[in-house]
Design goal:
This protein folds into two domains: 192 residues, Fumarase C, Chain B, domain 1 (Orthogonal Bundle), CATH 1.10.275.10; 304 residues, Up-down Bundle (Fumarase C, Chain A, domain 2). The strands form four sheets. It has a three-stranded antiparallel beta sheet. Strands 1-2 form a two-stranded parallel sheet. Strands 3-5 form a two-stranded antiparallel sheet. Strand 1, helix 1 and strand 2 form a beta-alpha-beta unit. By secondary structure, it is mostly helical. It is built from 20 helices and nine strands. The chain is elongated. The two termini are 26 Å apart. Keywords: Histidine metabolism, Lyase. Its main location: cytoplasm. It catalyses: L-histidine = trans-urocanate + NH4(+). Belongs to the PAL/histidase family.
Length: 522
């Protein structure tokens, strides 16, 4: 799953909780930035809490305040049991199973729930919102299990595990990663557990925060990976004696997709100044067209970029939303709604899994061409030192192909796989949490596929000596060699080298190495 480092506490920048930017989410979730609630947010929370307090003893039914939940919404709860109703809700809904969810995902989930609380539309008390901020700032991370959310009414089980920790119950991990009872961790941090009041349990679990957090994190990572895919493609085109003429701006403008234009511009920049490219810019070169996997890289990478742009639009709308049911309106009404349905997020999560698989697929095809002596234009079979005795990078491509095959399976949409629940009250659900979980695996897989392409292309560029590669691609080769990934030679243990390049891809070093020569890439 994720290869990214554990967040470091504390970070230098404090994030004000209100409408959040994607950068805010990454800073808090991944890098441990502290948070604070503004005075305006605290006042908004207090104002709507006064409305809920006014309804606490009301004999009229108000969903989530004086009634049961889901299919039990018609069950009236007497005033003396309404606080217990909220505690029971959290305890019963904290029913997740399976492996622990990654720390950064749980932190993103808590931050986004806090952001909705800060809108003042949920009716929680100020001290409840402050408790979420306190847990985030102390680096206390509730143990959330992978399975349990249908993505409607939001991410109920994951959010319930978070709310349980705020109550001082369940298990958490502290800032060092040690597993503790929530009560002990809160006591050590000087945080008083929350005793939930009317409406609060429901407000803490009724949101799309888990799937949205994973969407924001995935988009952040894809921003690096898609640019890295362009760098890898440029290395492959160059190493296979392909042409960059097809990436000319005027040719790309004939089909005016912005992502395609940006990708082609990256390819031109990375291949600029290549002596390898110049070596076959002669009449002796009889090829008029490169294979699709080389020639059409901007079209595939560009479409993925445009899909990410659409997903960012959806994520931006969700980051400014108040997702709860019921909500407290500006004029003081407490109204039921369906905004907890995760369809908008689930759809783009699935879409991103599709394009991630396709970018990986074309990268694998570019890699395979290096290894086939019939298509590699003078390179040794499998880039082996002594073909036959040595297998070269033959099995590295097998590994790459295995990942691509998995990504194709992960591209099957989750959002169309609704299953009814809660005695048919919740009869159409989004499966957005499942879509987000598989997208995380897809993003990780794409990084591995690109790493094998970069590893292979770097060896091929070395084998083109004495011809020199472009300054940008040479910088990537030098990065690998400096990280202990050796060049051509007899067979050796490949797995550590592949993992080293995976790290260089994920942390942005491959992209940065190219950018040292080209300037910023899109």
């Amino acid at each position: 799953m994720s290869r990214l480092p554990v967040p470091t506490l504390p970070a230098e920048v404090t994030v004000d909780v209100g409408p959040l930017s994607p950068e805010d989410v990454v800073a808090v979730a991944r890098h441990g930035a502290p948070v604070r609630l503004s005075d305006a947010a605290l006042e908004a929370v207090a104002a709507t809490r006064r409305i809920i307090d006014g309804l606490a003893g009301d004999s009229e039914p108000h969903y989530g305040i004086s009634t049961g939940f889901g299919a039990l919404a018609t069950t009236s709860i007497p005033p003396e049991k309404r606080a217990q109703l909220q505690r029971s809700l959290v305890r019963s809904h904290a029913a997740g199973s399976g492996p622990e969810v990654e720390r950064e995902v749980v932190r993103a989930t808590m931050l986004l729930r806090l952001s909705t609380l800060a809108t003042g539309r949920t009716g929680v008390r100020v001290e409840t919102a402050q408790a979420y901020a306190a847990l985030l700032n102390a680096g206390i991370t509730p143990v959330v299990r992978e399975h349990g959310s249908l993505g409607c009414s939001g991410d109920l089980a994951p959010l319930a595990h978070c709310a349980l920790a705020v109550m001082g119950e369940g298990q958490v991990r502290d800032a060092s990663g040690e597993l503790l009872a929530a009560g002990d961790a809160l006591a050590a941090a000087g945080i008083t557990p929350v005793e939930l009041a009317e409406k609060e349990g429901l407000a803490l679990i009724n949101g799309t925060d888990g799937m949205l957090g994973m969407l924001v994190l995935a988009l952040h990572d894809l921003g690096t990976l898609l640019t890295t895919a362009d760098v890898a493609a440029a290395m492959s085109v160059e190493g296979q004696l392909g042409t960059d003429d097809v990436f000319a701006a005027d040719l790309q403008a004939l089909r005016p997709h912005p992502g395609q234009a940006a990708s082609a511009a990256n390819l031109r920049a990375v291949m600029s100044g290549s002596a390898i490219r110049e070596s076959h810019r002669t009449e002796a070169c009889t090829r008029v067209q490169d294979a699709y996997s080389l020639r059409c890289s901007p079209q595939v990478h560009g479409s993925a970029r445009d899909t990410c742009d659409h997903a960012r639009l959806v994520a931006g709308r969700e980051l400014s939303a108040a997702v709860d049911n019921p909500v407290v309106t500006l004029d003081g009404r407490v109204e039921s709604n369906g905004n907890f349905h995760g369809a908008p997020v689930a759809h783009v999560l699935d879409f991103l899994a599709v394009v991630t698989a396709d970018v990986a697929s074309i990268a694998e095809r570019r890699t395979d061409r290096f290894l086939d002596v019939a298509r590699s234009h003078g390179l040794p079979p499998f880039l082996a030192d002594d073909p036959g005795t040595d297998s070269g990078l033959m099995i590295a491509q097998y590994t790459q192909a295995a990942v691509v095959s998995e990504l194709k399976r992960l591209a099957a949409p989750a959002s169309v796989d609704s299953i009814p629940s809660s005695a048919m009250q919740e009869d159409h659900v989004s499966m957005g949490w499942g879509a987000a979980r598989k997208l995380r695996r897809s993003v990780d897989g794409l990084a591995r596929v690109l790493a094998v392409e970069v590893l292979t292309a770097a060896r091929a560029l070395d084998l083109r000596a004495p011809l020199a590669p472009a300054p940008a691609t040479a910088a990537v080769v030098a990065l690998l060699r400096g990280a202990g990934v050796a060049g051509p030679g007899p067979d050796r243990h490949l797995s550590p080298e592949i993992e080293a390049v995976v790290d260089l891809v994920l942390d942005g070093h491959v992209r940065a190495a190219a950018e040292q020569q080209t300037g910023p890439l899109a």
